[in-house]
Design a protein that fits this description.
A five-stranded antiparallel β-sheet has the order 1-2-3-5-4. By secondary structure, the chain is α+β, with helices and mostly antiparallel strands. The radius of gyration is 14 Å and the shape is globular.
Length: 84
C-alpha cells in the first residue's frame, strides 16, 4: 500500500511561506528577537522548549511564522504569559 506524503511547504525568495490556502511571512531569529527585545539565541531556546513554533529551512535554519509571533504578542497583551 503506497503512503501518501504531504507536499512540504514552499518558502519563496521573498520570505513568504505557502501552505496551500495561506501565505505567511517567515521571520528570522534576529527579527523575532528584535520584536521581543531579547537575544536571537533566546528565541532559538524558546523554540527548542516549545514556547514558539518554528520551521526549519532546507539548510537547517529556523524560521518563525509571522502569524505565530503575532498570536503570541496578542496573547501576552491580553494577560497571557510572555514567552520567557
Amino acid at each position: 500500500m503506497p503512503y501518501k506524503t504531504k507536499k512540504p511547504p514552499t518558502v519563496s525568495p521573498d520570505g513568504t511561506f505557502a501552505t496551500g490556502e495561506t501565505t505567511d511571512r517567515l521571520l528570522t531569529p534576529g527579527e523575532v528577537a528584535h520584536i521581543f527585545g531579547v537575544d536571537p539565541k533566546t528565541v532559538n531556546r524558546w523554540s527548542l522548549t516549545g514556547k514558539i513554533p518554528s520551521i526549519r529551512t532546507p539548510s537547517g535554519q529556523r524560521r518563525y511564522r509571522e502569524t505565530d509571533i503575532n498570536a503570541l504578542i496578542n496573547a501576552s497583551s491580553e494577560g497571557g504569559q510572555k514567552a520567557r
